Amino acid sequence: MNPIVKINVKNFGSMTAELYPDKAPLTVANFLNLAKDGFFEGLIFHRIIPGFMIQGGGYRADFSETDTPAIRGEFASNGFAKNDLKHQRGVLSMARTNQPNSASSQFFVMHANAPYLDGQYAAFGILTDGFDVLDKIAAVPTGRMGWFDDVPKTPVVIESVEIVEE
Fold this sequence. Notes:
Elements: E1 4-9, E2 13-19, H1 25-36, E3 43-49, E4 53-60, E5 91-94, E6 107-110, E7 123-129, H2 131-138, E8 142-145, E9 148-152, E10 158-165
Antiparallel strand pairs: 1-2, 1-10, 2-7, 3-4, 4-6, 5-6, 5-7, 8-9
């Protein structure tokens, strides 16, 4: 059995995802450890781009940044060939800087297929339920704040990432 997590989002509902430790073992272990520690509670989806993705796990509602140690990027262009997950609608993947080994806690959920990301980012799971929640989040009004043009005008808060099965 693969781990199952539920991402509970205030005023939106829940998205359930199956994680794939056989494809991205370090990434899945990191995500599960952060969830167990309650790390994601109160953080926001700080980037929302309809027809692309929603990104969270790095900022609080006041836009103060969180910090966790970086992990190795488990994707093909970083020499990690066994991760063949495609960036299709519903896939969870790790956000990172231009440095391949800079992923830490920020993750994104694909709102639409983006094959150009395949092999460039560490995909590690896929939604099994909650696509309606994904669509509702992707539809929130956004604007410019700090570095980003795509910040929700009203915070989209992660209440918790609950481990349903491990």
